[in-house]
Amino acid sequence: LEISNLGEKDILVLRLDLTDRSSHEAATNSVLKHFGKIDVLINNGGRSQRSLFVDTNLDVYSAIMELNYLGTISLTKYVLNHMIQRRKGKIVTVSSVMGIMGAPLATGYCASKHALQGFFNSLRPELTDYPEISIINICPGPVQSKIIQNVFTENLGKSLENSGDQSHKMPTDRCARLTLVSVANDLKEAWVSDNPYLAVCYLWQYAPTWAWWLTNRMGRRRIQNFKSGL
Fold first, then answer.
1. Using one digit for the tens of pLDDT, what is the confidence trace for 113-126?
2. Which domains does the chain have, with CATH numbers?
3. By the 8 A CB rule, do 152 and 110 touch?
4. What residues have CB less than 8 Å from 199, skipping those under 6 apart?
5. CB-based burial, 197-206: b 16+ in 10 Å, e otherwise
6. Contact by Cβ (8 Å): 135, 127
7. What are 182-205's pLDDT values in tens digits?
8. Has keyword Methyltransferase (predicted)?
9. Angle (nearest 5°) at CA 49 between 46 and 52
10. How far, in Å, CA of 106 to CA of 103, rounded?
11. CA–CA separation, 30 and 214 (whole Å)
């Protein structure tokens, strides 16, 4: 049993809405006022998607990008300004394996994660004058969480009727531990996933033609299951 030495002064919890970008500067300043510095920012807010593009309202795509992408880079901007002044810090973004591959029923979600990958991979070389500021992208595969219960669907007001079984997914604590190991070692990108999903990541990276063939095969079955309510 580990005994924590943390006291009340070591913990600060703030409510934050990633879509309310006008509040991000004040939230950052509140943290700085309390702790005096920010060593690590972990961008872990976002929503997934389960719907076919042809059935999905474009407002859903706007909302996905507003939350997953624009909200994340907005908060990053204010925290990064502080880290540049200190010349030190870590910006960790929980992307997804969907940021490096495509998947049916998640076109908007994949787009938002691809956007994050492109943004932070482009931001990293802008910070070459600050070698102690790390940009770290974490790409989890399927992980046990409530992300499925809260996905975007065809319309903004509609929730998913069946979230399905999650027992086959990586346990949450293992994902968190592997993420912390990646952050501690300043990995630029980490794929946090079990097989067979991890193997598919390697296919997309090194054998994309095979990956497209496999994704089409798996995608057809996934869409059939989705339409059947499974």
1. 999 999 999 999 99
2. 8-193 (3.40.50.720)
3. no
4. none
5. beebbebbee
6. yes
7. 999 999 999 999 999 999 999 999
8. no
9. 155
10. 6
11. 48
Structure tokens at 122: 């482009």
**Global pTM?**
0.92
Of 41-55, 77-91, 163-177, 199-213, the range with the lowest mean pLDDT is: 163-177
Instruction: Give the catalytic positions in this structure.
Output: 109
